[in-house]
């Protein structure tokens, strides 16, 4: 909890308390990345296994405190795994640590093939300039839409009227790839880099496989903006599936005793 709080606080987020712990920690699973050499926790993900909870009760989800789920979200809960509170200690930034955490998620998915959806809040720090947040929310909301209206934000983030001209270039772009280049150029002008998780979630699937269902202001976590992302694992790009899941499936198969 202390490591999690200090890491989030370093980027303008966090609870403001000494430790970032809550009641969800008691029944969520925790994926830990460990440094054997320095005996340090490198980072972690928190996993809400709603797919195996009795009745798939969405009231038990952390994301339910930020978003109101529609009835159309029932399949998401029946086959979904909520991801959240991901962090990597600052001294491990730039060392592929997030990729190693994703390898851990892939190993989990290889062991639990019934999981079809990954979903959860992905944050944007309030430390980012308002125009940068407007650009990011507009881009991911427009080019990775949620046609099923799975959820609505409890406290929606609103793009400033004055920022509409800044975002207009994206609206006229023919596809997400070209719009991404345009957005990145505008963010560079503002001195902002695209948050890693937003970039990676958007790139992991074929078109239509990644959705952003809304953007909520989290007043209890540094007033950050949380985008609710949904990833359909049936739409994973083949190379991403091979990198993160298939290799673990092959390892499991190799570990099974031969049947003679």
For the record, give the distance between the C-alpha atoms at the N and C termini, rounded to a whole number: 49 Å
Q: What count of helical segments does DSSP give?
A: 8
Q: What would the principal axes of the Cα set say about the shape?
A: globular
Known CATH architecture? 3-Layer(aba) Sandwich
* CATH class call: Alpha Beta
Q: What's the short version?
A:
Helix content is 35%, strand content 22%. The protein is an alpha+beta fold. It has a single domain (2-126, 145-159, 211-255), classed as Aminopeptidase.
Structure, explained:
The chain has one domain: Gcn5-related N-acetyltransferase (GNAT) (Aminopeptidase), CATH 3.40.630. By secondary structure, the chain is α+β, with helices and mostly antiparallel strands. The strands form 2 sheets. Strands 1-2-4-5-8-7 form a 6-stranded mixed β-sheet, with helices on both faces. A two-stranded antiparallel ribbon has the order 3-6. The protein starts with a helix and ends in a 5-residue tail after the last helix. Helix content is 35%, strand content 22%. The protein is built from 8 helices and 8 strands, in the order H-E-E-E-H-E-H-E-H-E-H-H-H-E-E-H.
């Amino acid at each position: 909890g202390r490591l999690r709080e200090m890491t989030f606080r370093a980027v303008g987020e966090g609870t403001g308390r000494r430790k970032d712990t809550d009641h969800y920690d008691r029944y969520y699973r925790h994926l830990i990345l460990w440094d054997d050499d320095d005996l340090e926790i490198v980072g972690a993900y928190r996993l809400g296994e709603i797919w195996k909870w009795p009745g798939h009760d969405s009231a038990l989800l952390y994301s339910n405190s930020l978003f109101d789920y529609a009835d159309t979200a029932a399949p998401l809960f029946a086959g979904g795994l909520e991801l959240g509170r991901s962090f990597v200690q600052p001294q491990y930034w730039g060392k592929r640590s997030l990729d190693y955490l994703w390898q851990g998620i892939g190993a989990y998915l290889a062991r639990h093939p019934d999981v079809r959806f990954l979903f959860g809040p992905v944050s944007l720090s309030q430390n980012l300039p308002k125009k940068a947040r407007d650009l990011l929310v507009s881009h991911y909301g427009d080019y990775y839409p949620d046609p099923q209206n799975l959820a609505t934000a409890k406290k929606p983030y609103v793009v400033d009227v004055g920022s509409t001209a800044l975002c207009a270039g994206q609206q006229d772009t023919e596809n997400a790839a070209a719009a991404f280049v345009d957005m990145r150029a505008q963010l560079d002008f503002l001195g902002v880099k695209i948050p890693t998780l937003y970039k990676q979630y958007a790139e992991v699937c074929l078109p239509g496989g990644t959705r952003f269902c809304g953007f909520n202001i989290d007043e209890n976590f540094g007033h950050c903006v949380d985008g609710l992302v949904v990833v359909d694992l049936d739409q994973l790009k083949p190379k991403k599936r091979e990198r993160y899941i298939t290799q673990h499936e092959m390892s499991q198969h190799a570990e099974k005793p031969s049947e003679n």
